[in-house]
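Priority: medium. Attachment 1 of 2:
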């Protein structure tokens, strides 16, 4: 067994050597000048290696994970004419990816490779035809499981007819076969797809129609087939200067049969809709539409048929009135009805008003009424809801000072049968100030929200939020960011006593550009809750970053960071991490290297992670 493994490794090394030699030949010996003028080619070669070691220690227990991954990727594509580019052009592409992965005592190898070929006839004419075929294989082998191989092959054609006097016609036909020997997901499947599209665009209308077909055959296990047919249509037209029409329709039917040619399922979907847009005046718009959806779903299991029918109607009408740039008004009506095992009806009317009497001031108002009903064989429920609201927002800039404030009031009435009737009120208010001192920005704001409910099963809530922020630009290499916040949250349900929860939040960061690409950073964060069941957190960190460009086309980055975290409900944690990266470009070759280290300590548990990564990429 050991000799066989050695032979397989030698064979893999030989294959790798052959591929590398072929790639080098393509790189060092380009096409001749005469052929290069006719043909164009592109490709990529990439080699990468990653080594990741993770060690975890908790008391007397130690675990170690060592994973090594080597991957090579190749891609090559060639394009050119067949005799004359006016007659035909071709495209040939191939790709190959080989991955070796070793995890502790187990190793695996995966190869993904394939090709694609396409030939386009008369590409510059009004009837181009493209024939294509492709084949891709994924082959994996591991010391844990046996070889798994999946092959996917497809071929098809694309044809277009482009005439100004006729609708644009596009035809697609494709067949795909997938074969795999994976014992966990064995599949031997064939799919056939076809679609025919018609598209016509004029100065006043747009028309689109498409027919689609899909046939699927599963040859393994319980052999089954399914067929799907669908038709989609869209039409839009400007009937007059002030009236526009929009319609759509879609129909799809899907049926499945087992190996004995017995129907196992049948599903039909019908979607259709029509809409009108009416613009009689500059300041008046009217939009109305109606949509209908129908679903028929039937399954046959063990000789028992189960049928589900569903119909849904949706309609809406919106009137948009804007007589002045400072006033916008919308009045809308929405209707919904669903007929199925549970019937549902919904009617909603809404009114929204937005006014801008002066610069920076917005006045808002809204009202809505909702009535809904739900009924089935065992129960019926009804509900009505009314909501009214009004508010404003105001922003006033004065030189380096910006002042903003807002307020909103909401009132609602709910009637439910069966259920709990009642009403609710809500207030949302806020104000803030921002002061720009050119070198530093100070900001503070306060927000308050309150909601009262007469229904016993809904909570009353009060919340106060205070925020204070300081941020600066780089002043002689120094930048500071600090934010302080305080939240005061109250809640209760019915006549229960109020419960209180407070949060004190502090976030700060200092960043100092010592010289060139050298940065020193530090930060502190605190989240302190009054609720003992909440996890208080206190975090402190220091960080050093270095960005260097020692020579042309080379960049290097080094970062070291240590972080201390303290928790009220968990064990304290200390994390030390480092990262080094270098990139070097030699014309079209990019060399990259990276090393990442981290040491995490929490209580008696200690975790160390080391990761090395190297990559070479050549694009041509």
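Attachment 2 of 2:
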């Amino acid at each position: 067994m050991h000799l066989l493994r050695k032979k397989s490794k030698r064979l893999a090394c030989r294959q790798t050597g052959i591929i590398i030699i072929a790639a080098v030949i393509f790189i060092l010996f380009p096409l001749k000048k005469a052929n290069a003028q006719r043909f164009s080619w592109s490709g990529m070669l990439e080699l990468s290696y990653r080594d990741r070691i993770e060690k975890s220690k908790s008391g007397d227990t130690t675990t170690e994970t060592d994973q090594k991954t080597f991957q090579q990727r190749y891609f090559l594509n060639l394009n050119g004419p067949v005799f004359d580019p006016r007659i035909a052009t071709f495209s040939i592409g191939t790709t190959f990816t080989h991955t070796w992965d070793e995890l502790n005592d187990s190793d695996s190898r995966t190869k993904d490779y394939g090709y694609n070929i396409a030939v386009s006839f008369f590409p510059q004419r009004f009837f181009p035809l493209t024939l294509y075929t492709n084949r891709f294989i994924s082959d994996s082998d591991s010391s844990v499981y046996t070889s798994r191989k999946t092959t996917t092959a497809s071929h098809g054609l694309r044809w277009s007819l482009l005439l100004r006097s006729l609708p644009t016609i596009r035809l697609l036909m494709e067949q795909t076969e997938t074969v795999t020997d994976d014992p966990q997901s064995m599949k031997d499947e064939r799919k056939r797809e076809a679609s025919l599209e018609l598209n016509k665009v004029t100065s006043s209308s747009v028309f689109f129609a498409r027919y689609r077909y899909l046939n699927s055959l599963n040859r393994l296990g319980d052999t089954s087939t399914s067929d799907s047919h669908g038709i989609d249509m869209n039409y839009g037209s400007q009937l007059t200067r002030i009236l526009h029409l929009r319609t759509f329709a879609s129909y799809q039917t899907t049926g499945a049969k087992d190996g004995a040619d017995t129907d196992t399922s049948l599903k039909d979907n019908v979607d259709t809709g029509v809409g009108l847009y009416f613009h009689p005046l500059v300041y008046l718009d009217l939009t109305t539409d109606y949509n209908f959806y129908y679903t028929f779903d039937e399954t046959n299991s063990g000789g028992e048929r189960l049928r589900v029918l569903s119909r849904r109607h949706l309609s809406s009408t919106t009137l948009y009135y804007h007589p002045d740039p400072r006033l916008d008004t919308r009045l809308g009506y929405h209707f919904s009805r669903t007929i199925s095992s549970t019937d549902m009806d919904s009617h909603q009317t809404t009114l929204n008003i937005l006014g801008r009497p002066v610069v920076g001031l917005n006045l808002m108002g809204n009202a809505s009424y909702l009535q809904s009903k739900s009924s089935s064989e065992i129960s019926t429920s009804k509900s009505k809801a009314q909501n009214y609201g009004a508010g404003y927002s105001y922003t006033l800039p004065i030189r380096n000072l910006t002042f903003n404030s807002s307020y909103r009031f909401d009132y609602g009435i709910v009637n439910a049968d069966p259920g709990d009737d009642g009403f609710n009120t809500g207030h949302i208010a806020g104000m803030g100030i921002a002061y720009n001192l050119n070198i530093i920005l100070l900001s503070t704001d306060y927000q308050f929200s309150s909601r009262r409910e007469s229904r016993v099963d809904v909570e009353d809530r009060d919340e106060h939020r205070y925020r204070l922020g300081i941020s600066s630009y780089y002043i002689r290499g120094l930048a500071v960011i600090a934010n302080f916040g305080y939240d005061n949250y109250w809640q209760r349900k019915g006549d229960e006593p109020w419960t209180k929860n407070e949060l004190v939040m502090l976030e700060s960061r200092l960043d100092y550009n010592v010289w060139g690409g050298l940065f020193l950073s530090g930060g502190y964060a605190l989240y302190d809750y009054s609720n003992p069941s909440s996890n208080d957190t206190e975090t402190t960190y220091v960080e050093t970053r270095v960005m260097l460009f020692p020579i042309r086309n080379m960049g290097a980055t080094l970062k070291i960071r240590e972080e201390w975290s303290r928790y009220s409900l968990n064990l304290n944690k200390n994390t030390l991490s480092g990262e080094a990266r270098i990139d070097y470009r030699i014309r079209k070759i990019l060399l990259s290297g990276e090393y990442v280290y981290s040491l995490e300590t929490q209580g008696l548990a200690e975790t160390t992670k080391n990761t090395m990564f190297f990559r070479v990429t050549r694009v041509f």
